[in-house]
Specification:
rod-shaped, Homeodomain-like_sf, mainly alpha
Length: about 130
């Protein structure tokens, strides 16, 4: 994967290439890897510009602020079900999204915390 270059360096690469410099000469002059220089030149010939394109893929449903809010709600309401937690947050997401976000992003298991152990009436009298 080529390294990211600032716009000034990319402009220098294209200027040196337009003046007839070889890729190896550009690499030696700018201290940049040959693959990076070649990719920038190829991208300029293909697209006509050097602007960064948006990252492909679907954006995340919950951003950092939503995850922080979810973490606070989960911590305060440990004995609530996911359906009840869903009604407490401001973002409209499915229960499956909540479950995976709690598990993957927050690192918590999605089981209800038990406040006391399960005791039979005989055990409670002892």
């Amino acid at each position: 994967m080529p390294q990211s270059l600032d716009e000034g360096t990319q402009g220098q690469i294209m200027g040196m290439r337009a003046s007839g410099a070889s890729i190896q000469a550009i690499c030696n002059n700018l201290q940049a890897p040959p693959t990076t220089v070649h990719d920038r030149i190829h991208k300029h010939h293909k697209c006509g510009h050097l602007k960064l394109l948006p990252i492909p893929g679907r954006p995340r449903k919950l951003n950092d602020r939503d995850l922080c809010q979810l973490a606070c709600v989960v911590q305060q309401n440990r004995s609530k079900k996911l359906a009840e937690i869903k009604s407490l947050i401001t973002v409209d997401v499915s229960i499956n999204t909540l479950c995976s976000s709690i598990h993957k992003d927050l690192g918590k298991k999605t089981c209800i915390a038990v406040k006391k152990p399960y005791l039979s009436p005989v055990h409670m009298q002892q």
